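To: structure subgroup
Subject: Chain for Friday's discussion

All,

I'm putting the inputs and outputs inline so they're searchable in the archive.
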Amino acid sequence: MIEQLSTIFSYEFMRNALIASFWISLATGVIGSLVVLNRIVSLSGGIAHAAYGGVGIAYYLGHDPMIGALIFSTASALIMGVTQRKSKSGADTLIGVMWSIGMAIGIIFIALTPGYKANLMSYLFGSILAVSSGDLRLMALIAFLVLAFVVFNYRSLLGISFDELFSTIRSAPVSLIYLSMLVLIGLTVVVAMRMVGLILVIALLSIPPAIALNHFKDVRAIMLFSVVLSFFFCFLGLVISFQTNLQAGPVIILLASAVFIISNLTRRFHLSKKA
């Protein structure tokens, strides 16, 4: 087994993918826990899909699609966040509209760009071959930003997640912290799309924290367990995808989904026994 793993990770692109898995797991595990606790999975999905508009425009203009995705995801996060803070009822509609607009803009600009565009599929479904040394540095930067944000604002984030009104009464900068959290979600989505793609990135953000929530109540424990689970899913997904010649992204998400279903069934079984 050890020899087989050493053979798999003797390739540079597989080592890059493994390092990327660590940074992505760190970012998605921590920020994804906040996504699940604040019940903003749909909003995060809107940010993720809107980012594709930036991919298409950047590609059309001859720039790095990652830069375009970062700009679009940040702008989308701020627009959706401000709207949600002002109007809960109108936010759902805006999320759906921006989700659709982002995808439509991306598809149109990619179609208008002459030449072969197969590599852009990696932004939708992920590709371990797309991870470069520059991507690794960006992933590490985003992971450190997420960690620093959570460490320095931990109490305020707890307040926003469980009792926003109390945090507001105590004059905490609720809106600023909330919008900052959404921006970091957008940045995390963009770096994670290299591994699993924009279509599947929300599953990586939400499934590990949802599993952790079945077993832990302490937020720190949820975040830590989410990071460990995410890295386990990515590592095992990479090994399986290498051996079966399948795309890593869908394999990782299917593994996570299978564990999520088993975790939920196990939890319901234990609850029914107690009842």
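Points worth raising on Friday:
The chain has one domain: 2-274.
The mean pLDDT is 86.

D.
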